[in-house]
């Protein structure tokens, strides 16, 4: 198959990890007789520097024409004092909205060779394998008004949702659960928010379409506790944008392998933007220290969810798994008895295992 | 000194734990020659049952006349299907607003005898001692509009703040930090929310009044991670209402002693409502199994913050500490080699140690 992929390296270590993922995809294409073509575009702080905006029109246009998008990371201290519309994150928020990427999927899964690095006790974290399905284009992130009032003495932000926006993300969660352990935990704050009460109604309606999936409602404060005390109780968690932002970052540190976690942001048609959960790590940028595995695993999600290449996705995931089992690790990971390597060496290890 | 205390037992185990705290306060009054008088009023689900409202006017009136309020817990499955205005939590939300209890203080501190029950590894949790200062009467909890629109096809909630509401809670946090480790972590989502950008400005202004306190801004998603990976880095965390709800519950499970955690909700004048962080635990209500220590420690906070009886507060806290060290524990705690006791026995243990 022929696929055209837009790379959005972004800032900091972004270009190092997207290059690594590109190399892996190229090696895989050769193995499986696919043709993957690549094109790089600017986003984030580097786009502000070059084009005066964190999301140039040509970046959006290129993404629209592509089969899928692979992003590195955005942000850095250089742009922290910029006004809101010139901040790197604004590029990310805008591309999500422009491409209608409403469904953010964040799998959190432990790697047996890395679980020792978890802040949680072994018996608490073992057997956890969860997927957070976060609504990504609504809620407090995009609601209006969002403004100062009364001469700057007060301020409002708006948490707004269409019922249809809730329905489509909740459906996505049930579909994902049907392919997994068949349990959905819907997270809201229905004892306080009207939007959460509507959310709960939508979940109650949609669940009838998935009779073999069980569902549980949980308040966001309780979910923040249970992720820590009993992460293994979860299968799929579905929630609105801001709660999802907080809970998915909370969940990302549980397994001790934040540098390993991929994510997918998808629209209705299966098109998606894939990116590592980790940030742009400006402190180690340009030093070949970055862990490329989250970006490589994001590419695997792309293969699976957008290209429907399940076998290829599994080949990449197994190669990553095996590289870890052989003791290869970048500096962010501590693998007793393993061999510390740089970004390029890690990428080569994955590629050679992929071909094996 | 003479002090009049209103007890709001509420639902579930609420009446068991407030009775326990009352006994402790009575024993303490005798020791220190104070006169504490008590009066019980209804709130929550039991108030709905008796009065048709979760916060009867006479409850509010009694609280206004009291020197302080001690609450048990509200809520339970019996009222879960009630409409919003007849839910137990509405009583809690209304009393906070009625009494202008804008400052919620939640200390999270480990007990050496209980740290083994933490879901976190010993080396991660040890040396953590933090205080969450949560804004309690603004933000998404009380903003209007909060309503369905367009024939129920859409919904909005409103995150609204006055600058003055931000100033007073941020000041409270700096004051608390000045008496502790002199560090404030201000949590917001300034890369997305206008209200968070105003919040950050307010923190930057207020900090000049407290030159010996250091301050750091942290995004809420990063804070949700760091509470788990490095809780000992925090001293005082200050944040708005909804972020505070989530982060304080997240923090409450870190030390493995949720059943031990007290909280204070205070107004401008030092008046306060004190309550355990744990819920109404309907599953064990009426069985004398409830752990009364969080309610007793909430009474200690009342002594300290509203009655300015520091010595008395410390006497209570030491007695609790010692009871644990002697191995006394209720069924929610697992103390190897300790003696499991019921609510009444635990209360008596604390009282006899308090008199010793
Ligand atoms: C950078 C920021 C705006 C973004 C978000 O809050 O969505 C990030 O935290 C994420 O989760 O992808
Ligand atoms: C019961 C609920 C409305 C309340 C809140 O969200 O404030 C509770 O979770 C709390 O933290 O005291």
Automatic annotation (TrEMBL), chains A, B:
Residues that coordinate or bind NAD(+): 76-89, 279-291
Q: Which domain of life is it from?
A: Bacteria
GO molecular function annotations of the record:
3-isopropylmalate dehydrogenase activity; magnesium ion binding; NAD binding
The record's catalysed reaction(s) read: (2R,3S)-3-isopropylmalate + NAD(+) = 4-methyl-2-oxopentanoate + CO2 + NADH
**Keywords, in A-Z order:** Amino-acid biosynthesis, Branched-chain amino acid biosynthesis, Cytoplasm, Leucine biosynthesis, Magnesium, Manganese, Metal-binding, NAD, Oxidoreductase
Show the InterPro entries listed in the entry: IsoCit/isopropylmalate_DH_CS, IsoPropMal-DH-like_dom, Isopropylmalate_DH
Does this UniProt record's set of keywords contain NAD? yes
Biological processes annotated in GO? L-leucine biosynthetic process
Highest classification ranks of the organism: Bacteria, Bacillati, Bacillota, Bacilli, Bacillales
Q: Which organism is it from?
A: Alkalicoccus saliphilus
Q: Which positions are annotated as binding substrate?
A: 96, 106, 134, 221
Q: What class of enzyme is it?
A: oxidoreductase
Instruction: Give the E.C. number(s).
Output: 1.1.1.85
Required co-factors = Mg(2+); Mn(2+)
Q: Where is this site: Important for catalysis?
A: 141, 189
Check the record and name the SMART domains matching this protein. Answer: Iso_dh
- Partners and quaternary state? Homodimer.
Q: Please state what the protein is called.
A: 3-isopropylmalate dehydrogenase
Pfam families per record: Iso_dh
Major subcellular site: cytoplasm
Domain called Isopropylmalate dehydrogenase-like: residue spans: 4-350
> What remark does the entry make about the cofactor?
Binds 1 Mg(2+) or Mn(2+) ion per subunit.
Q: Which residues bind Mg(2+)?
A: 221, 245, 249
In which pathway is this protein known to take part?
A: Amino-acid biosynthesis; L-leucine biosynthesis; L-leucine from 3-methyl-2-oxobutanoate: step 3/4
Localization, per the record, is: Cytoplasm
UniProt lists the gene as: leuB
State a GO cellular component annotated for this protein: cytosol
* Role noted for this protein: Catalyzes the oxidation of 3-carboxy-2-hydroxy-4-methylpentanoate (3-isopropylmalate) to 3-carboxy-4-methyl-2-oxopentanoate. The product decarboxylates to 4-methyl-2 oxopentanoate.
């Amino acid at each position: 198959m022929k696929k055209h992929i837009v790379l959005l390296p972004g800032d900091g270590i972004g270009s190092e990890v997207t290059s690594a993922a590109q190399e892996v995809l190229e090696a895989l294409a050769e193995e499986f007789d696919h043709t993957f073509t690549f094109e790089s575009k600017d986003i984030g702080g580097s786009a502000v520097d070059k084009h005066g905006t964190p999301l140039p029109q040509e970046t959006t246009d290129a993404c629209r024409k592509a089969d899928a998008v692979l992003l590195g990371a955005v942000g850095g201290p250089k742009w922290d004092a910029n006004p809101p519309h010139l901040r790197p994150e604004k590029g990310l928020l805008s591309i999500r909205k422009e491409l209608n990427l409403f469904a953010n999927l964040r799998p959190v899964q432990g790697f047996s060779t890395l679980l020792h690095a978890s802040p949680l006790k072994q018996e608490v974290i073992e057997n956890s394998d969860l997927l957070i399905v976060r609504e990504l284009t609504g809620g407090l992130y995009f609601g209006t008004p969002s403004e100062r009032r009364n001469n700057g003495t007060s301020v409002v932000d708006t948490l707004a949702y269409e019922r249809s926006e809730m329905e489509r993300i909740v459906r996505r969660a049930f579909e994902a659960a049907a392919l997994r352990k068949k349990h959905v935990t819907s997270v809201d704050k229905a004892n306080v928010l009207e939007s959460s009460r509507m959310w709960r109604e939508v979940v109650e309606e949609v669940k009838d379409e998935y009779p073999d999936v069980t569902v549980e409602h949980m308040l966001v404060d309780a979910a923040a506790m249970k992720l820590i005390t009993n992460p293994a109780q979860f299968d799929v968690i579905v929630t609105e944008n801001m709660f999802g932002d907080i809970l998915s970052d909370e969940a990302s540190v549980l397994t001790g392998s934040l540098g390993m976690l991929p994510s997918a942001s998808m629209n209705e048609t299966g098109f998606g933007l894939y990116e590592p959960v980790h940030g742009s790590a400006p402190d180690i940028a340009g030093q070949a220290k970055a862990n490329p595995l989250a970006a490589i695993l994001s590419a695997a999600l792309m293969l699976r969810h957008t290209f429907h290449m399940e076998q290829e996705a599994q080949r990449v995931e197994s190669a990553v798994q095996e590289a870890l089992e052989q003791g290869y690790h970048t500096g962010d990971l501590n693998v007793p008895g393993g061999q510390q390597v740089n970004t390029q060496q890690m990428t080569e290890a994955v590629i050679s295992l992929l071909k094996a």
